């Protein structure tokens, strides 16, 4: 278990590790997960300041060590927050590629790692609840926990049911995307998400006002990222304002793409966090309100 972004609250960390062990996993906590520093990498962290779970160098080292350790079967992130993009220039991608694939699991700020690992290493990655987040909550959602366990241990594909079709239709393609603000933050960098042509895009975010969501969608559209997209699945938008206003924004910005547009997929930052395998093939059926994994996604 690594912490590539924000500092981890000890109680939630302990509860999350206990939840992982309850699923039958042996948990090793990376060396610097308990650390907490300021944004300039100085310690000790000052009260009220935004923090990181250790210096950039130490967080990058923890991630590299875990990925390259043959005794580690999966790398699971403790939480999101901020800081994952700062690691991308510090990772030796040749070393990581030589270590071979394994599951990388996390969400939110970890979207930066999903995009970079998928693009540079050619691996699928796992977007879902994190150790010090929902998994470490007092009463975690049972379906979310089961989906997380199935993603790590394998099993038959589990369809995900959305709540509304903002545009009808069916399509298939590899799943891509993640947290909207992170995808836009990567544009114009060497780690920018590859174009979504031929892919099914998953998008979600948290505590972003509708006008900011609109602006980020416009940025992606103007960059050409959505050109040729096969379909779009919208996850949770916890704390993002009036759901009716959001639906209007999504319909206005994404509807003209002319592809299936499914809303209400229980994945992201909400109380239900289904695990999705980014890079793996899926079928989106907005008429049936489903997002279904297809064979070929298992590592």
Automatic annotation (TrEMBL):
GO biological process terms, alphabetically, are: proteolysis
Q: Which UniProt key words apply to this protein? A: Carboxypeptidase, Hydrolase, Protease, Serine protease
Q: What is its EC number?
A: 3.4.17.13
Cross-referenced InterPro entries: Carboxypeptidase_A_C_sf, Class_I_gatase-like, LdcA_N, Peptidase_S66_N, Peptidase_S66C, S66_fam
Q: Where do the LD-carboxypeptidase N-terminal domain residues begin and end?
A: 2-127
Question: The organism sits in which domain of life?
Answer: Bacteria
What region holds the LD-carboxypeptidase C-terminal domain?
A: 172-284
The positions flagged as active site in the entry are: 108 (nucleophile), 204 (charge relay system), 269 (charge relay system)
Instruction: Please name the Pfam families in this protein's record.
Output: Peptidase_S66 (PF02016), Peptidase_S66C (PF17676)
Q: Signal peptide position in this chain?
A: none
Recorded GO molecular functions are: muramoyltetrapeptide carboxypeptidase activity; serine-type peptidase activity
By sequence similarity, the record places it as follows: Belongs to the peptidase S66 family.
The name of this protein is Muramoyltetrapeptide carboxypeptidase
Q: Which organism is it from?
A: Actinomadura namibiensis
Query: What lineage does the source organism belong to?
Result: Bacteria, Bacillati, Actinomycetota, Actinomycetes, Streptosporangiales
């Amino acid at each position: 278990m690594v912490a590539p972004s924000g500092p981890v609250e000890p109680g939630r960390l302990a509860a999350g590790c206990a939840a992982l062990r309850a699923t039958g996993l042996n948990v090793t906590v990376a060396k610097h997960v308990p650390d907490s520093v300021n944004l300039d990498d100085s310690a000790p962290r000052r009260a009220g300041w935004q923090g990181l779970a250790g210096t950039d160098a130490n967080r990058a080292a923890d991630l590299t060590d875990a990925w390259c350790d043959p005794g580690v079967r999966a790398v699971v992130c403790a939480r999101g927050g901020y800081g994952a993009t700062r690691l991308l220039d510090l990772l030796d991608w040749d070393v990581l590629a030589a270590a071979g694939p394994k599951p990388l699991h996390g969400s939110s700020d970890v979207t930066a790692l999903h995009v970079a690992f998928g693009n540079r290493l050619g691996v699928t990655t796992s977007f879902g609840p994190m150790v010090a987040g929902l998994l470490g909550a007092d009463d975690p959602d049972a379906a979310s926990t089961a989906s997380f366990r199935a993603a790590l241990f394998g099993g038959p594909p589990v369809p995900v049911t959305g709540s509304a079709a903002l545009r009808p239709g069916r399509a298939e393609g590899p799943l891509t995307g993640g947290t909207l603000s992170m995808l836009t933050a990567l544009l114009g960098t060497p780690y920018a998400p590859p174009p979504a042509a031929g892919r099914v895009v998953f998008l979600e975010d948290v505590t972003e006002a509708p006008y900011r969501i609109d602006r980020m969608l416009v940025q992606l559209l103007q960059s050409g990222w959505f050109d040729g997209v096969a379909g779009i699945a919208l996850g949770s938008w916890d704390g993002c304002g009036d759901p009716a206003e959001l639906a209007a924004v999504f319909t206005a910005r994404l509807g003209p793409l002319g592809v299936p547009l499914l809303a209400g997929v229980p994945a992201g930052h909400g109380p239900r966090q289904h695990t999705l395998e980014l890079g793996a093939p899926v079928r989106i059926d907005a008429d049936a309100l489903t997002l279904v994994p297809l064979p070929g996604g298992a590592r």
